[in-house]
Amino acid sequence: MEDIEAIAMLQDPVRRRLYDYVAAQDHEVSRNEAAESAGIQRTLAAFHLDKLVDAGLLETDSRRLSGRTGPGAGRPAKLYRRSGAERQFSVPPRDYRTPADLLAEVAEAARLDTELQAAARREGRAARAAAPVDGLDAAKVLLSARGYEPRLDDDRDALRLANCPFHALSERHPVLVCGMNLALLEGLMEDAAGLQVRMDPRPGMCCVVVELSKNNVS
Amino acid sequence: MTGHHLAQLNVGTLKFPLDDSRADGFTSMLDPLNEVADNAPGFIWRLVEDGGTDATAIRTSLGDDVLVNLSVWESRDALWDYVYRSGHLDMLRRRAEWFEPPKAPFQVMWWIPAGHIPTVEEAVERLELLREQGPMPCAFGFRDSYQPADADSALWRPVAATART
């Protein structure tokens, strides 16, 4: 499916609600759960969820939720998660990924990490909202707006970033791009009272964690 | 995929001797990061010098100031997650503090039959091959996506690998 058609699928408010819900979860979502979240009937949710799968916006898996197998274990439930595929559409056509990739390749070969980090830090400072970030909640709003999909961790003292806005580039040039990302976030969060930004990469997540400063945690 | 593992060599030219205080940031991270590697999903083996816990004393034809790091993994993704999605990434970010900028490719990977333990000579030979001829099924980098079958079907083998089989 063309990117524009896939993106257009999200025009429908019910689909959009379902998509946003599935994307925001840290687990795969059943039809029942999705239906409940959107306040619609299960069959209607199933219809829209499968439309989103057809468009490549969601992926699906079949698994028995009970964990049992064999006859009597029940029908496997269809589970949904956000697809890893990226969709972009620009009018008129523009391609920024190719030059970004080429520039990164050259910067990496020339070992311009330090220079790139300095530029990213300046960019972060400049882009910072006028209002200071005064805690995890404010940081969450700022990071959400920049596409990081921050999630408060169980201890409620750190934000884990479920999405890397530079994903494709960071897969190809991890050291350069993750170093840049850290510096950008350091710039964005500078002067944020009681918060610190640190690299703590984990599979499938953005490489950075935003947490309460050690000297702020009792 | 079960019949093959992925071997990887990476090398770095030290700016200072390892006992120089300017290398402390690097040397102090070695033990914790090796522990992360040993416990990483898909880790199989890494080169360790006799009586040591790492490979920092091993020298090759690449030079007296060149450190080598040789390891074996279940898959490319397992290796990738360790190198770029663990505490190891933060060390890489700071690599310019301790290592000279590379003038040539500094890492190489290749598929090996499961159970084979690569020698450091074989590894260096693969790296030199990559440097001289670019990526190919028997010597490639993270950017390339050669599969074990590609290596099996390639007629050419490095000298060191052929000599032992």
Structural commentary:
Chain A: This is Helix-turn-helix domain-containing protein. Chain A is α+β, with helices and mostly antiparallel strands. Chain A is built from nine helices and seven strands, in the order H-H-E-H-H-E-E-H-H-H-E-E-H-H-E-E. The longest helix of chain A is centred in the C-terminal third of the chain and has 16 residues, at about 175-190. A four-stranded antiparallel sheet of chain B has the order 2-3-1-4. Chain B has a single domain (about 5-160), classed as 2-Layer Sandwich (Alpha-Beta Plaits). Chain B is globular and about 50 Å long. Chain B is an alpha+beta fold and about 160 residues long. The interface of A and B includes residues 113, 114, 201 and 203 of A.
Task: Output the keywords.
heterodimer, A: alpha+beta, Arc Repressor Mutant, subunit A, 2 domains, four-stranded antiparallel sheet, three-stranded antiparallel sheet, B: 165 residues, alpha+beta, Alpha-Beta Plaits, 4 strands, 18% strand, Dimeric_a/b-barrel (chain B), DUF3291 domain-containing protein (chain B), DUF3291 (chain B), ArsR-like_HTH (chain A)
Short description:
The complex is a heterodimer of chains A (218) and B (165). With 218 residues, chain A is an alpha+beta fold.
What topology emerges from the helices and strands here?
The complex is a heterodimer of chains A (218) and B (165).
Chain A: H1 3-8, H2 13-24, E1 29-30, H3 31-38, H4 42-54, E2 58-63, E3 77-82, H5 97-109, H6 113-127, H7 136-145, E4 150-152, E5 158-161, H8 167-172, H9 174-189, E6 195-199, E7 208-212
Helix pairs in contact in A: 2-3, 2-4, 3-4, 6-9
Chain B: E1 4-13, H1 24-38, E2 43-46, E3 66-73, H2 76-84, H3 88-93, E4 107-113, H4 120-133, H5 148-153, H6 159-164
Organism (chain A): Amycolatopsis carbonis
Protein name (chain A): Helix-turn-helix domain-containing protein
Domain DUF3291 (chain B): 6-144
Number of strands of chain A: 7
Give a short account of the largest sheet of chain B: 4 strands, antiparallel
Write down the Rg of chain B: 15 Å
What share of the residues of chain B lie within helices?
A: 25-40%
Largest interface: A-B, 18 and 14 residues
Mean of residue pLDDT values of chain B: 90
- Please identify the top-level CATH class of chain B: Alpha Beta
- Tally the helices of chain A: what do you get? 9
> Helix count of chain B?
6
Question: How many domain modules of chain A?
Answer: 2
Helicity of chain A, in percent?
40-55%
What coarse outline of chain A follows from CA principal-axis ratios? globular
Average predicted local confidence, pLDDT of chain A:
89
The oligomeric status of these chains comes to: heterodimer
Tell me the fraction of residues in β-strands of chain B, as a range: 15-25%
Strand order of the biggest β-sheet of chain B = 2-3-1-4
Q: Given the C-alpha coordinates, what overall shape of chain B results?
A: globular
Distance between the termini of chain A: 52 Å
> Distance between termini of chain B?
21 Å
Order of helices and strands of chain B: EHEEHHEHHH
Pfam family, one (chain B): DUF3291
InterPro entries (chain B): Dimeric_a/b-barrel, DUF3291
Domain DUF3291 (chain B): 6-144
Protein name (chain B): DUF3291 domain-containing protein
